[in-house]
From TrEMBL:
This is Lipid A biosynthesis acyltransferase. It comes from the Bacteria. It is a single-pass membrane protein. A motif (HXXXXD motif) lies at residues 131-136. GO terms for molecular function: Kdo2-lipid IVA acyltransferase activity. GO terms for cellular component: plasma membrane. It is an enzyme of class 2 (transferase). Catalyzes the transfer of an acyl chain from an acyl-[acyl-carrier-protein] (ACP) to a Kdo(2)-lipid IV(A) to form a Kdo(2)-(acyl)-lipid IV(A). Its EC number is 2.3.1.241. It comes from Stutzerimonas zhaodongensis. Belongs to the LpxL/LpxM/LpxP family.
Amino acid sequence: MDRPRFRASFLHPRFWLLWLGLGLLWLVVQLPYRILLWLGRGLGALMYRVARSRRQIARRNLQLCFPELSEKERERLLRENFISTGIAFFEMAMSWWWPKSRLQRLAQIQGLEHLQQAQAEGQGVILMTLHFTTLEIGGALLGQWHTIDGMYREHKNPVFDYVQRRGRERHNLDATAIEREDVRAMLKVLRAGRAIWYAPDQDYGRKQSIFVPWFGIQAATVTATTKFARLGRARVIPYTLERLPEGRGYSLVVHPPLDDFPGESEEADCRRINEWIEDAVRQHPEQYLWAHRRFKTRPEGESSLYRKRPKKPVSV
């Protein structure tokens, strides 16, 4: 995919409000890091109060995944999760617009040798991550040290799409943005010995998934990780990012490659991946994206685990 280019149509009056908002965000994000964390906490607290439907989804997920916690403990975790989500809004802007040197000062990185070894051997890498609230800044931080290609889904608003892609790709000047459905392009990149960002921890429906446990609940889990690793002749190397307390920055860990992957079956691989993801989430549950309906797709005959969304009234 070509690099994002500015177009004259982006100056149309219908985009002026968005440009104004982006400009104000650019100004705010120039503030010191600790002040941005404080603003993010405030935004998260506000989101907790007003984002009712997302709050209900996150609360339900925490009930399903942490039944051993008391209701009071889960509610405290829920509030912390929304605060983490509010901070992520400013981390997104930081990753788009902060100077690279300023970003680098926040990062503590371990395990980079796993990526370097694969690169030296000409081995493609599925850089497996998960949807923590630190996802955006995690890609930016890792991109300072290693080129990462990425799966890409075009945003409906062309101006936002331009700003987002430009902000992401500046960390990887020779990277490739691959449409999420373009399997052939992804396999080509892997066979060329490159590393591609990939997160298999959301519910993408029944068509390309099988049901295996996650936090003890049957969850639709994509089998694509196995297919990509086999057809792309690639290693699966997980990485995680933790937002450290007291404004101390971030700890990014590139973990060793998964041994003997792909394994004996897609089901065994999916179980293994879900177990790995569950363990990573349990270490920092307040930083995970619980507002996603992870258990939306159910096995045949099972009822929904979430409240039905009220239908919008039909205007006459």
